[in-house]
Amino acid sequence: MSKFPLPSNSLMFAPMEGITDDTYRKVIGALYPEWDSFSCDFLRVPNPNPYPLKHVRKHFGEHFPEELKAKSIYQILTSPGAFLKETVEQVRDLGFHWIDLNLGCPSKTVCKHRGGSYLLSELPELKSILGTIRDHFPGVFTCKIRVGYKDDHNFEDIIRLIQDCGVDAVIIHARTRDELYKGVAKWDYIKQAVKVATIPVVGNGDIWTTKDIERYYDYTGCHSIMLARPALKTPWMARLVKSNEEDSLELRSQEILRYFSAFYQETGAQEIEEASRIRRLKSVSRYIFDDFNEGNQVKSSFLRSKTFEDQMKVVQGLLQEETPGYLIDDKILNLQKSHP
Length: 340
What we know:
Elements: E1 11-13, H1 22-31, E2 38-39, E3 43-44, H2 53-60, H3 66-70, E4 72-77, H4 84-93, E5 98-103, H5 108-112, H6 123-136, E6 140-146, H7 155-164, E7 169-173, H8 187-196, E8 201-204, H9 210-220, E9 224-227, H10 229-233, H11 237-243, H12 249-269, H13 274-283, H14 295-304, H15 308-322, H16 330-333, H17 335-338
Parallel strand pairs: 1-9, 2-4, 3-4, 4-5, 5-6, 6-7, 7-8, 8-9
Helix pairs in contact: 1-12, 4-6, 12-13, 12-15, 14-15
């Protein structure tokens, strides 16, 4: 029987390489606790030598509030022949209750080394990997997949293999590996998976708005939804859904200020050097300005900014456009001086 712990219609914040590290998850977890789960970006299972335990712990991050750790998923990515058993046991022994296996990464390097979405084309190797994880990890075990590698011909076979190996739920990005992020993810794949699977199906891919979420559930019948790029665009999405709040441009501009300020404060508290703090803010600004008038110009100005104060002036321009008379509190602009 599936041990999947989330109730129906849950919203999961997706793992994203280079984004969902411990700093980012602490900020999102504090600002937007309405998300039902969070995930670290994947830990690459090593070969030829196991990691020391402190590396496995450090990858997830330390000093997490217990309520955030309880909602967290430890994602791994592996290849045949890697030190999978040892790594899974380390994750288990560190007290993590949920492992997710990355079977969706489309990176050429990852696939060249027979990891990520490559394994969707090699079901005997995938079966061995799934069995190793299930045999050595008693907690929640999920897989995040694409619908296939080069094509979708064995999509249903993949679903059946995953559930037969004792996986508790399958998270599906509705594209093949070769499609990368082109076009629009096809909701029909999720509908098909729901008919085949006996475990919960979580849908993922191009679900950008609260109305999309409503239509997605109605059309696919999936258990829950995981958001990646849309979560970067609207980190407060789970709150909007659960409070029936409208995501107006006025609200969006205010939340961007709140979000960027909290992220900047957290990087300062961790004594990250200033240039890196500015780069990190730029890295999480993808998609976030898209809905504004002249959004590309706003984004360009933000990316050209060399200081936090300059970045906040760009945001202040949005606030004054959407909320005439709105002024940023001087305390926010002084954050740069507070954390040199």
